[in-house]
Every structure is written in C-alpha cells, then in structure tokens.
Amino acid sequence: MRGNRWLLVGAALTAWGITACAGTGGGTPGSPAASSSPGGASTPSTAPGPPLSAEALKSIALTDEDVPDSLAVSADERSPADSDSTYPPVSDPSCETLLDAPHAVGASAVVDQNITWKGSILPGGNTLASYEGTGAEKAIDRVRTSLTTCHDFTGDSRGGKYTSHVAPEKAPRLGDESIAFRVTTPVKLEAPDLPGGLPAPMQNQRHILVRVGGVTATFSTLDLDNSNHFPLALIRKEVARMTKAQHA
Q: Which end of the chain offers a freer environment for a tag, N or C, measured as fewer CB atoms within 10 Å?
C-alpha cells in the first residue's frame, strides 16, 4: 500500500522508540512459505475476464474469521484520491517502479487490507487489485524487470534520509504467477542508547505478489529480526478465492 508506506511503519516503530526510515505492510507470525525459483514462479495462465469491482474484491478479502491470530482485519476500498503517491521519489527509478507494485498503480479497483496481529504492534498487509485486459500481467512484469536492476536506493521519509537494499526471494508457486522480494533498511534510534554495543536493528519488508487472471494480491510483512512471514495457508485461501471469483 504505497499510501501507507511511511505512515504505518513510522507510527509503529516510534512506539518502540525507533524512527522508521522506510516501510509498508506489517509483521505476522508464521513459517516461511514453500518456495520455488528465486524471485518468481509461474504456471499456465488463467485468461483474464471482465475486471472485478471493488465490491467483488471486498467479498473475497480475508476476514477476522480467516485470521484467528488477529485482533482486527480491515478491508477498505481505495478512493481515486488515494491512488497516486504524494511521497518523494527514491533515487533509482527502477526501485520506484518496484515500490509502486504493492500500491497497485494502474488498477481499475483496489482494496487495501490491514491485519492487526495478536502480540505484535506491527500490522500485516494485503492489497487486492483488479486490472483491465492484460494489466495484471504487465504489473507483475514490471516487478520482475525492476528486480533485475534495482539493488539499492536512497530516499526521504518522516524519519529522515534512509538507504535500503532490495533482493529477490523465492516465491511460493501459486496462481498463474508469483514473485517475491525483500527490502532491508537500517532504522534509527531516537536515543543513542543501544545496550551492550548492539548493532542498529534492521527493518525487513517482505512482499509476495500473486496473480490470478486479471487480479493480483500483494501480501506484505514487516519485522526487525527477519523472522516474520505471511502465513502460507492464508495466501492459499486468498488465491483460491481470486480464482473462484473470476470463474463465477
């Protein structure tokens, strides 16, 4: 969710006495997803039908009942006014394209989800997006292309200047195609009092994008210790709903 990229993380990490340098999505307990080739995976493609409406996307979104380890699960239609980022661009245009992926730029309808996990101040995220024609395929292609050239970038946020590193990750073999990447960013403490000379914590953002026909889902997590993963069972459940909705 590009519009939430700075706000959610900045508020959450400040609660820990840490100023975020960048971020989106949230954290969730769970084991790593079963993986295929690094960066992405694909299967025979589902022919895209008419684009789903925002109402249809909300009907297949994850709910509180789907996520028993959550305190709250929201599903909100994105208004046209929130479709364009108002944040400063980062230093590398290919990285800017990559960071736009979770924001579903160019989609005809978007539903943003926040998941508040029990025992965590960092929310998780899922963005459902519907595209006209081959728009969904092109969105995934942009991510795949950007991952070949985007490695490091700098930018500005409410926490000040930051530098981030981008790396492809192994994606679960789901839907017509899937792709995954991680963004790591050192965070700044509000006070220089790290105990025992410990290194500054590293913020880890993980994004898994899955396409089924003309619909994409972007599952995002955030942590400071490289341990959180969006539960694979929830991803599978969402992908099954995406498939069913386009064959109704």
A: C
| Residues spanned by the domain of 202 | 2-245
Sign of CA dihedral 25, 65, 40, 140: negative
Q: What is the pTM of this model?
A: 0.80
Cα dihedral sign, 179-236-100-182: negative
Run of H or E including 136: helix 135-147
* Contacts (Cβ under 8 Å, ≥6 apart) of 147: 39, 98, 166, 168, 179, 181
* Structural domains in the chain (count): 1
* Residue 170: CATH number of its domain: 3.40.1000.70
Nearest one of 64, 88, 215 to 162, comparing CA atoms: 88
3-state SS class at 56: helix
- State pLDDT tens for residues 16-55: 444 333 333 333 445 444 444 445 555 555 666 789 999 9
